[in-house]
């Protein structure tokens, strides 16, 4: 319910969060599907992937932190 409310009130914010999640998921699939990638490289790719710094992502991070 809370996500639906935020989505209605701030669609750009919620879309930014969903896009970030999708980007992380896409990168994880890419890295995990490469059988030649050494484990250390795989872990590095998945753990240090920078998020795009946009106004929406910064607002999303702040909003998510306030909900915790």
Task: Chart the SSEs and their pairings.
Elements (H helix, E strand, L loop, with lengths): L1 H8 L1 H22 L6 H9 L7 H13 L1
Query: How confident is the prediction overall: mean pLDDT?
Result: 75
Q: What does the radius of gyration come to?
A: 15 Å
Pick out the low-confidence regions.
Answer: 53-57
End-to-end separation in angstroms reads 16 Å
Give the total of beta strands.
Answer: 0
Q: What kind of sheet is the major sheet?
A: none
Helix content: over 70%
List SSEs in N-to-C order: HHHH
Global outline: rod-shaped
What does this structure look like?
There is one protein chain. Helices cover 76% and strands 0% of the residues. The chain contains 4 helices and no strands. It has helices at residues 2-9, 11-32, 39-47, 55-67. The radius of gyration is 15 Å and the shape is rod-shaped. The protein is an all-alpha fold. The two termini are 16 Å apart.
Q: Summed up, what is this model?
A:
The protein has helices spanning 2-9, 11-32, 39-47, 55-67.
List the keywords.
single chain; 68 residues; mainly alpha; 4 helices; rod-shaped
């Amino acid at each position: 319910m809370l996500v639906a409310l935020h989505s209605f009130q701030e669609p750009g914010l919620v879309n930014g969060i969903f896009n970030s999640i999708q980007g992380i998921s896409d990168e994880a699939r890419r890295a995990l599907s490469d059988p030649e990638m050494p484990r250390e490289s795989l872990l590095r790719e998945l753990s240090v992937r920078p998020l795009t710094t946009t106004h929406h992502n910064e607002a999303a991070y702040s909003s998510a932190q306030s909900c915790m």
